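Practice record 12: protein with adenosine-5'-diphosphate.
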Amino acid sequence: MLSVKNLSKSFDGNTILREISLDVAAGETTVILGPSGSGKSTLLRCLNLLETPELGQLSIEGDTVDFGTDLTDEQVRTIRQHSAMVFQNFNLFPHLTAQQNVALAPVLNGKKSKAEAKKLAGQLLAKVGLEHKADAYPDNLSGGQQQRVAIARALAVAPDYLLFDEPTSALDPELEAEVIQVLMGLAAEKRSLVVVTHNMAFARRVADRIIFLDGGTVAYNGAPAGFFASDHARIQRFLQIFE
Ligand code: ADP
Ligand code: MG
């Protein structure tokens, strides 16, 4: 279970997240929706401490940090080990092959030997349908393939929670579909996924829970059916964009 209580984050005196509280159940797909600038990326980045909130509390799988005082390196490490992030722009290391990208973190964090990490990378690339691209460099892969390598790389650290920040927003529809397929596979395996996306078909079909952010607050938190049938004016206006 991942739990956020009264989390607040500001930049330059502007409050971006305002006393956010929510729970993310393990084994579920949680989709975060909301207009541009509503704080979706900032919230996701707070979950792995890429951003540090000023106030509130974060608990992941029993490890808890209270914000408002400086966190120790040990606290940051402990929280970070529970999740892995997949970014909109893939962020692969350009000078490493697909396999080397996937194998890197488990070696650096001391969890796997080089040989073990290489074997794991091969298995994870096969899982995302890219075993034939193990030796390719990112420049020689399509955007969809790069994002699938990035997903394999995230899986390589065996995170409790996978965090996706608009994983298909940089992709053409065809390439988007191949990445969505991988996400649907992970959801079917009951992985714990937190996905910021504008893909409404994915939200409707795959989400167990929808969180709708508006102006840095949670405007909806519940089942997809209730979200898509909401009579909340702000949600209706948001959904009209996708009709
Ligand atoms: P979303 O992902 O929903 O589009 P973001 O979390 O990226 O929203 O941003 C929310 C608000 O916070 C925006 O107004 C954005 O300009 C601001 N913001 C995000 N990151 C920073 C930063 N590092 N410094 C200053 N302002 C930021
Ligand atoms: Mg964003």
